[in-house]
Amino acid sequence: QEGNHFRFVDEAICAYQITGEERYLDLVKDYCDHWCGHIEKCAAAGGPIPCSILPEKTQAKEMSKAGVFEETQYTIFYSTVSDNTMYDIVSGLMDAYRLTGTVRYLKAAETMMEQFWANGKDGRPAIRYKDGKWEVQDGQGGETETAGAYAPDCTYLARLALRYHALTGEAKYKDRILAWARSVDEDNNKGDQVMA
Q1: 20 to 30 A from 192, CA-CA: which of 102, 112, 180, 181?
Q2: 10-residue block means of pLDDT along the chain (196 residues)?
Q3: At CB < 8 A and 24+ separation, what contacts does 117-123 make?
Q4: pLDDT for 66-93, tens place per residue?
Q5: Pairing of strands 73-75, 68-70
Q6: 105 neighbors 94 (Cβ within 8 angstroms)
Q7: Burial class, 20, CB count within 10 angstroms (exposed 0-12 / middle 13-18 / buried 19+)
Q8: For 101-150, where are the alpha helices, taking DSSP H only?
């Protein structure tokens, strides 16, 4: 299961809210419970928490065609842990928490976000886990990269921080994003930005 499959859970949430049919709510809870188990297991093992759930003894192959098995490797389009796929997981879990009040969903969402902050540097969160290491957008950019190339990598945690604050009233992620924004130096470092 890829994390971006949570987009289908969004549809099930809408279907439940419109129709009131329990089968849609059951689908949401089943999928979220499955992901919570994955998140809890990986966190207990010391992480990172991959944005895909694979069968036992299957390894992920990064940055390839998504959804294809090659012997014991499952190819994924993104990194093992990517901020954009994490966004889908956390959004879905927060929506499920809003709908059901199940605290486990909120805790799992927090755990997914926390790994980016725990593996960041100088107040900046990590943006992905790839090739066995966490990467942090350091604001320097490459020789041929423009500031805009980093914009997508900066938006996901910022958007989630605001959604988390609106949902819970707790500002812990919002405060981190604001501190990150205050440390940005766009004049001197073309890739140094946070956008939401």
Answers
A1: 112
A2: 74 95 96 96 92 74 56 60 87 95 98 92 82 75 53 74 92 84 62 50
A3: 117/176, 119/48, 122/183, 123/176, 123/179, 123/180, 123/183
A4: 555 566 555 555 667 888 889 999 999 9
A5: antiparallel
A6: yes
A7: exposed
A8: 103-118
Q: Which two tokens stand for residue 29?
A: 């809870």
Each residue of 115-154: b (16+ CB within 10 Å) or e?
A: bbbebbeeebbbbbbeeeebbbbebebeeeeeeeebeebb
pLDDT tens digits for 140-164? Answer: 555 555 555 555 556 788 889 889 9
The residue assigned the tokens 């350091």 is 138
Report d(CA 17, CA 24) in Å as an integer. 9
